[in-house]
Every structure is written in structure tokens, then in C-alpha cells.
């Protein structure tokens, strides 16, 4: 599990391509190295990856086909940077919201509005069906960053970023057309799907009752 509070930015140093598989090596921030071992979980742009090699501050991770397909990690090149966060411990302060590191879809940046002390960024999810889980003032994970949803339309949503977030994460350098990883808040998803099931069941019961009543009247 992760908190969505980005702990650093890591540069991609090397990429090894294989059949439906990729290994990339990043330069981990020094403060995140203590206790980092093989098998540890580290979030890259919100995607949970497992450490497969450690040589000083050069840390390697394997990316399987599904990860490359669903996330923006497959489009990384040497020299690019990612937001990183080590797995949360039970004693850690949860400054953001609990995140699993499982990316649901990506979203394209469609608009950037910059003011003196903040920035408003609009996103359009690649999978439009995910919009039903994105609610005004709800939680969302964007490239591993825990954020609060601002305005929401049928196809897009926005977030408001303070200077600290822009300085400490990769969102400060994002441009129009670039894609970010999206993790939906699981609690919101569970509530929405539960309500949908209840309403669908009630609709089916009402339909069955109407059909039965019409049948009785015809008799």
C-alpha cells in the first residue's frame, strides 16, 4: 500500500527491452535507499513495481506486458523521470489516502490553466467508463500523487495544484497531450458499484411486479 505522498523523483538510467517485457533502471533518491532490498515494492508514477536489482543508487524493476499496456511506464525513455514512493509502513503518517498501486487507466492532459499561486489541470481518461468513479471533492491518484478532484464533466475532470506539489512531483513539468496514470479511490468505486447493483435489483423487481400485474389483469 502507498499513501500518494510522493517521496522523490527518479531518473530513468537504462531500459532493457525483451519480448512483452521490460526492465528499467532508475537512480533512486539517496534518502529512499536505506533498507531497500530485492522484492521491495516501490511506486513508479503510482504503479506498484518490485525491486529486482540494487547496485548503489541504481535500482532495477521488471515491467510485464500488462503494466506496459495499461500505464504510461511503457512510453518512458532514458532520461525521463518518475514519481517514486516506497511502500507505507503501519507507523507511517497517511498524509494522502491509501492507494494500492494498481492503475486503472491513463488520462490525457487536455488543458492547463496557470495562476500566481496554483495550477489547474484538466484530464480526459482513456477509459471513459472510469468517469463514474470520479466525483467532485473525491480522492484520486494521478501519477502516484494523492489529489482532490475539482470540477467534473461527463468526460473530463480537473485538479488544483499548489506550488509545493508542482515542485516536488513531475506534474510541474507536464505538457498538453501527455498521459498520466490514474488510480481510482477504491472506497468510491465500491460505493458506486454497490448503489448500481441495488438500483438494478430494484428496477428488475419493479419490472417483474409490473409484468405479473399485467398478466393478472389479462386473466
Automatic annotation (TrEMBL):
Lumazine-binding repeats lie at residues 1-97, 98-195. GO terms for cellular component: cytosol. Pfam families: Lum_binding. One of its GO terms (biological process) is riboflavin biosynthetic process. The keyword Lipid biosynthesis does not apply. It catalyses: 2 6,7-dimethyl-8-(1-D-ribityl)lumazine + H(+) = 5-amino-6-(D-ribitylamino)uracil + riboflavin. Residues 1-97, 98-195 form the Lumazine-binding domain. It comes from the Bacteria. Pathway: Cofactor biosynthesis; riboflavin biosynthesis; riboflavin from 2-hydroxy-3-oxobutyl phosphate and 5-amino-6-(D-ribitylamino)uracil: step 2/2. It is an enzyme of class 2 (transferase). InterPro entries: ATP_synth_asu-like_sf (IPR023366), Lumazine-bd (IPR001783), Lumazine-bd_dom (IPR026017), Riboflavin_synthase-like_b-brl (IPR017938). Its EC number is 2.5.1.9. One of its GO terms (molecular function) is riboflavin synthase activity. Keywords: Repeat, Riboflavin biosynthesis, Transferase. The keyword Lyase does not apply. Catalyzes the dismutation of two molecules of 6,7-dimethyl-8-ribityllumazine, resulting in the formation of riboflavin and 5-amino-6-(D-ribitylamino)uracil. This is Riboflavin synthase. It comes from Erwinia tasmaniensis (strain DSM 17950 / CFBP 7177 / CIP 109463 / NCPPB 4357 / Et1/99).
Amino acid at each position: 500500500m502507498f499513501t500518494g505522498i510522493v517521496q522523490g523523483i527518479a531518473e530513468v538510467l537504462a531500459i532493457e527491452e525483451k519480448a512483452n517485457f521490460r526492465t528499467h533502471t532508475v537512480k533512486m533518491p539517496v534518502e529512499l535507499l536505506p533498507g531497500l532490498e530485492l522484492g521491495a515494492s516501490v511506486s513508479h508514477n503510482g504503479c506498484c513495481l518490485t525491486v529486482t536489482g540494487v547496485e548503489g543508487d541504481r535500482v532495477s524493476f521488471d515491467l510485464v506486458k500488462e503494466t506496459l499496456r495499461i500505464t504510461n511506464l511503457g512510453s518512458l525513455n532514458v532520461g525521463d523521470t518518475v514519481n517514486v514512493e516506497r511502500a507505507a509502513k503501519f507507523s507511517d503518517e497517511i498524509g494522502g489516502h491509501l492507494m494500492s498501486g494498481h492503475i486503472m487507466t491513463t488520462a490525457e492532459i487536455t488543458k492547463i490553466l496557470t495562476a500566481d499561486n496554483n495550477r489547474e489541470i484538466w484530464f480526459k481518461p482513456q477509459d471513459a467508463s472510469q468517469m463514474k468513479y470520479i466525483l467532485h471533492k473525491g480522492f484520486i491518484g494521478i501519477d502516484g500523487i494523492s489529489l482532490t478532484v475539482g470540477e467534473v464533466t461527463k468526460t473530463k475532470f480537473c485538479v488544483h495544484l499548489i506550488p509545493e506539489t508542482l515542485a516536488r512531483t513531475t506534474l510541474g513539468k507536464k505538457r498538453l497531450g501527455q498521459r498520466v496514470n490514474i488510480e481510482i479511490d477504491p472506497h468510491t468505486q465500491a460505493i458506486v458499484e454497490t448503489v448500481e447493483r441495488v438500483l438494478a435489483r430494484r428496477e428488475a423487481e419493479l419490472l417483474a411486479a409490473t409484468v405479473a400485474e399485467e398478466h393478472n389483469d389479462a386473466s
